[in-house]
Amino acid sequence: xxxxxxxxxxxxxxxxxxxxxxxxxxxxxxxxxxxxxxxxxxxxxxxxxxxxxxxxxxxxxxxxxxxxxxxxxxxxxxxxxxxxxxxxxxxxxxxxxxxxxxxxxxxxxxxxxxxxxxxxxxxxxxxxxxxxxxxxxxxxxxxxxxxxxxxxxxxxxxxxxxxxxxxxxxx
Length: 171
Known about the structure:
- With 171 residues, the protein is α+β, with helices and mostly antiparallel strands.
- It contains six helices and five strands.
- It has a five-stranded antiparallel sheet with strand order 2-3-1-5-4.
- Strand 2 and strand 3 form a beta hairpin.
- The longest helix has 17 residues, at 94-110.
- The two termini are 28 Å apart.
- Residues 17-23 have low confidence and may be disordered.
């Protein structure tokens, strides 16, 4: 039972950071997968219960959510109008995680394409989860080719080194 909540928490952190809401759709999708596609009940705890994303989630109105979200995504270059990659650094030693993230951030800044944008590295919203320290950075690029070339040029590769695990998640 706890594993399901942990999974939901990670989905919420990943898919709803901009409006700081619980990802009701993510919870519902996990429930549907576990219960043969039947709609589930999701409890939403929100900092902004009046937010349009929450209203659409409660009403299960996917189309209204998409129609309201797309213009902003296009303006900011968020998927599907651009590529977004999250680089996550995790490890049991806070200093090692910080150092690995800083080194990768410097490399990413040196190779930053003219059309790219970099946020971070910075601590994750939940900086320590189950005795594991976490930092991340976000890379924005207009298309997959630019993103792939940028990540390769910066020397960022998934795996573990010096006790720090590096995970690359592209939109």
